[in-house]
Amino acid sequence: MSLSEIFAVLRRRWYFMVPITLVSLVAGVYLFRTVPLSYESQSSVALLDSTAVAKVAPTYGNPISNAGGSLVVTADVLIRTLESSDAAKDLQGLGVTDVYTVDFATDTSGPLLTLTVTGHDQAKVLKETSIFTTFAGDQMKALQTAAGIPPAYLVQTAPIVLPQIPVSQSKTRIQDVVGVVVAGITGGFLLCFGFEALMLARRRRPFFGARINPWPLKRAPRGFFGKPRDATAILTVYMALAFFIPSDLALPALGGVGTPANVFALLALLWYVANWLCDRIVPAPGTRTPRLAMCLLSAAVLLAYLADATRNSSHSEVLAADRGLIGLMVWVSLVVLVSAGIQTRERLDTMMRRMVVMGTVVALLGYYDFFSATNIADSISIPGLHSSVTGISAMDRGSFTRPRSTTAQPLEFGGMLAILVPFAIHQALDPVRRHTSLIRRWGPVAAMAGALPLTVSRTSIIGAVIVALVMLPRWKPARRWTAIGLLLGSLAGFKVIIPGLIGTITGLFSSFLSNTDSSTQARTVKYAEIVPYILERPLFGRGFGTFMPDLYFFTDNQYMLTMAEMGGLGVLALLVLFATGIHQGGAIRRLARTDSDRELGQAFFASALVSLVIAATFDALGFAMFAGLFFLILGAGGSYLGFIRREAREAAETDGADRPAAGTEAAPSDPLPAARASEPQLVES
């Protein structure tokens, strides 16, 4: 359905759209005029060394001259204490009833804390900030006194910035108004198309439910550059936004899930719903496997959201849970658009080719990062978008700069390329593309596979090894030995062109096996720290998206993070997603009738297996680009499986029809009955 058709439906159902839009606008104006402004006040507190330490030269008795970066751990303990439920009860008893937060001051590396209170009464907010500042010092003293620390060795707190005059936060009120208006317009949109679906059903009754278009356009819609405006075109725009806009840039009001690509995916979901309600898109048979897996994930996320509502979670955790629901809607949109929205095999092939081409461009940008020792994403600035990840800078390992291209982190960059490489290999080997040049076929494979070692991470190497172990055994001996020779030659080339890279990577794995790697030890320590949170709510978790590094810590393990946020049900849903991808790849290969389709099934199998394994090495679904690509591939696997199942069934029926029973002759085809001949011709949508 084109935009002209959508507007035509909205014009026909103006008696729904116009009143609801007006009501939502009036409600927005009413909220803007009646909802009180929020005021925010801040103060800053520094932790100072004890008086016994401060007397040592060269401080000469001045405690502020020895604020001490070593007190960062102590500051972290104080932050967790102030965010506890016991501290919340004590603050309520002291009169602090508004929302408050405490965190490390931005752009600082020492033990400097920022205390923030937000409320509607300006005078009350200022008073509560003063109480909160004093309470922080009392808590620091109480913690040490309870541990029996002598008075001379007590760490002190000193207000560096006194409670500031509360500043109005009109942005929050504007966000509420915009939310009401958007919700109203969206509701009116869905109501218009819901009523349109009812009217279409009534008009089909005389034709026994046949699919007709009772309101055809006077002229057929034309897409851009002569291309159709279908799900493939929409997903192409999504991929362009996801790949070429740095994934850490997002709308400030939505946080990490507010990337332009995710916002576009939500609009695309409305487009699909409008087409589905008007019977312009009917999900193809045999493609519902990924959608069923998404139903289980949706149930786990919703139950985790309810679990978060039943506990005494902080305001930031509530907002994070809301963002988790938005992220779920984005993933559902991608899976539905690919598996149910793409109606032909040719358009699905087009989408996969575009995906590989865009991934190649991202890989080439990674080469620039590596050899220039910088981040190209830092030079990209888009008005209205802000970085959702603080402190991003060029990461080094050994003497090499780890590239991240337009992703948020080198791990995401490596993981994204690892799940794309199998499809680049399949397209390079596809007989249909033999007429193209060698560079066009094998250039994407060389670019993406060659960029994997540049990330200097175990995740990338593990992904590359899994791809090789899955793809190579299925090839014929001649192709297999050629590939092994090219791999060995590539290793030798890396050793000559980039001296020390191979040694650094092998050192990563040797230190991992000997348990002397600092990053591995840090992760295992986090595993022990996260266990109490898991045992607290083992079934449904604490709420999807609420285990934030700002409040807790990084996990670098999607399974542990899912267990903490969504409990056992969430881990089960995650495993079902990976198993669905593996099953789809195996089923495609088993049912395929051509070598190209068998290679395609093996590519889906390898990509899903890579996702399953590397999810244990970083919080994969927490990165917008990797998560979006994973769900696109998951939906594409279901769509391909549906097409190949129908092709296999049609081939079996054709073979059966070509072999008449012994002693019989093929009966001539019966003419159409008069009743059927009088049925209306279906109109292509």
Automatic annotation (TrEMBL):
Pfam families, per database record: Wzy_C
Key words, A-Z: Ligase, Membrane, Transmembrane, Transmembrane helix
Molecular function in Gene Ontology: ligase activity
Region annotation Disordered: where it falls in the sequence: 652-685
Subcellular location: Membrane
Domain O-antigen ligase-related: 445-574
Keyword Ligase: yes
Major subcellular location class: membrane
Membrane topology, from the record: Multi-pass membrane protein
Superkingdom field: Bacteria
Stretches that traverse the bilayer: 14-32, 177-201, 257-277, 289-306, 326-344, 449-472, 484-509, 559-579, 600-618, 624-643
Name the UniProt record assigns to this protein: O-antigen ligase family protein
Lineage of source species: Bacteria, Bacillati, Actinomycetota, Actinomycetes, Kitasatosporales
